[in-house]
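Support reply, case 0932

Customer input (verbatim):
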Amino acid sequence: ALLSDDTLLSYLTMVNPSKLFAVELLVKLYGSLTLIGESAATPIISFRVIQLSLAYGMSPHSPSAFAQYGSYLALIGDEFEEGYRYV
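Our regenerated output:
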């Protein structure tokens, strides 16, 4: 892991309105894709929310993106220990 748990937990809050809006749109897209069964793109959406969070601060939706990433690592990537960090 490049960033420690303490570093991730101490990130500032996202305040840029356009970035907050982008995260909200991505979260809604994630929900819509999940609802219609198109799950192939959902990891990409989670990764993008995490990228925005690391670049501009944590949003209210950041924790769910990290949890989705952790699930992806554990279930798809067989990286259980690393995945457990995020869920």
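We compared this against your earlier run and they match. Two observations from our side: The chain has a mean pLDDT of 90. The radius of gyration is 13 Å. Please reopen the case if you see a mismatch on your end.
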